[in-house]
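The pair is set out directly below:
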Amino acid sequence: MKAIVILGDGMADYPIPELDHRTPLMVADKPAMDTIARSGRTGQLKTIPDDMPTGSAVANLSVLGYDPKITFQGRGVLEAASLDIQLSDDDLALRVNLICIESGRIKSHSSGHITNEEAGHLIGYLQNFFENWNLNFTQGLSYRHLLVIPGGNPNISCTPPHDHLGEEFESLLVHPLQKEAYETADMLNRMIRASQPFLADHPVNRERIEQGKLPANSLWPWSPGRRPKMETFQQRFGIHGAAISAVDLIRGLAIYAGMDVIPVEGATGLFDTNYEAKADACLKTLEDHDFVYVHVEAPDEAGHDKNLKLKIKCIEDLDRRLIQRILDGLGKWKDQTVIAVLPDHPTPIVSGAHVRDPVPVAIWDPRVEPDSVQNFDEESVKGGVLGLLHGDGFIRKIFGLY
């Protein structure tokens, strides 16, 4: 059997008053997801342990069956792998965002989703600006970039900016968790403050302000870690896998898991991503791979922006333009492929921040009788036969390892 997992990042939510106390998944028109639920078995998956950060890195590690308490070393190391940055054992890698601060508070974790071209200019100038510091920047996608500190101490506490919109940035600065990490934390805080006047006066930001856009007027480092040690999917399951995603984090995780990363033209990580090209890439990749992991970031970004209408649209686009296209295109593989759909974590509209609640899961395995659940949403799946899955319970069911 082959397997496809389709992950709508952050698409789970809480009941919303203006939706008559329903969630976006409940009100969205999503016949393909409902078909998978109706034809398969449903339940929930606990993706984020109670004592771990509520980030996509932890959640996706769990979805893929890795124990994040062992393998999680921050987002930075995963994004470094995606960018083909070879880390030494004592390198500290961090995600660094270009964010917008207004009146001393975090206005946007993405600087209004700054373009790749604009971000490239800023990151290049920042590397020159900090040339005498022990800092190495690498451009990623849009607002998401990589910072590597040779010899940096990972025992620091950093704040994900998307979880603290509207809060004063000074109260969210980096803190050392032990005295040996003070120097690293202090340098990062000095970097944040030094970046602000430099970025505020940069031509890219002056032009963005003139156009009525948010400026990228501060660096923000978070999710520190060192190179992880992970067994590959081939070592664990004898599986030849591949991943399709626009997000460096997911591509880096796939690389450490020994999976092929499939590039897709027009994949953006936002609502305007090329859903059809991702679906076509999945079907083509299935021909010579055992497993394809298709990740779509768009619902999560809409959740962070607290944009309810856009989140529902992202769910519907994922369903109609990607999932249904995959179902329609399976052909000879239809009876030989397990298909699953799930989020990695909820990103509720009310807060715009990740939470650790279990997520809905639907698995269509042609070898197994379906349960009685008819719809894919947070409440319906609670009646499914899968119950509440933990650890590697989800991925083992995908591969028929009961």
Summary: The chain has two domains: 2-72+229-398, 82-225.
